[in-house]
Amino acid sequence: MGAIILRAMRTAFIVSSAINSSAGMFSPEERLRDTLGTIDSIRQRVPDAAIHVLDMCGDGLQPAQARLLSSQVTRLFDYSGLHDVQAIYKVPNLDVVKNLTEMTCFHHFLHSQEALLAGVDRVFKLSGRYRLDERFSIGDYDDPRYRGQMVFSGRFASQFTPDVTGNDAADNFQLMSRLWSFDACLLPTVRSVYGQMIERMVERLNAGGYIDIEHLLHRYMPRSRIAMRTPIGVSGRLAPNAREISD
User: Fold this and answer.
1) Is 99 helix (H, G, I), strand (E, B) or coil?
2) Residue 3 pLDDT exceeds 60
């Protein structure tokens, strides 16, 4: 009998960034440096992964920034020219801008670049400036319990009251989005859910409320397709206050 050869898991990382954003404490130089650190952490932990960086800032990348990032990744997308991104950047609330642009650009990528994910087994979504740390192991995702599932770091109670989020009091939770992933078979589901998430956020804003990506992920991702992994193996600094966190 011939030897059985197990194929390594094929992975893609989609990294969201906003290099020239004016929100938060970090300068474009710091954001670029930290995002390069994000990319390096992927290369260290998953050397053969495809890496696609989506820059979602209304102020596009400078040529030197684009050249540097392009040299380190599989594909770089500068979404500053999207009409929807420019429309969102006219909103005065920076939290709204951050959440809506990220959802819009991720949704656009999943629709327009599906061919880049052909043959991939698992897709990871990682926020730029965060990094995979020593607790992350790609081999862990071969566990059968993660097949056909989305993997998040955990479910957390909302810091907002239900009248703000529009959620039922008994279901006012969030799923952390710094690092999460999904089995590639769920691409149509994730794409559809992100369309719902965008519609819901616009609805809440028009009603005078607020909601963000984490709450929307919990509200719309099918519960039967969610698995938890704690710790998930990601670290970094929060943009508003530079506080170091790890999940």
Assistant:
1) helix
2) no
8 Å CB contact between 38 and 73: no
Q: Is 240 a residue whose pLDDT tops 80?
A: no
Q: Are 141 and 9 in contact (CB under 8 A)?
A: yes
Q: What is the pLDDT of residue 6?
A: 53
Q: What is the DSSP letter of 195?
A: H
d(C-alpha 215, C-alpha 137), whole Å? 27
Pairing of strands 173-175, 226-228: unpaired
The yes-or-no verdict on residue 85 having pLDDT over 50 is yes
Are the C-beta atoms of 213 and 103 separated by less than 8 Å?
A: yes
| Residue 243: pLDDT band with limits 50, 70, 90 | confident
In CATH, which of 2.60.40, 3.90.550, 1.10.8, 1.10.150 is domain 11-235? Answer: 3.90.550
Size of the chain in residues? 247
Structure tokens at 50: 């495809």
Tokens 């260290």 — which residue?
Answer: 44
Q: Which two tokens stand for residue 211?
A: 């909601």
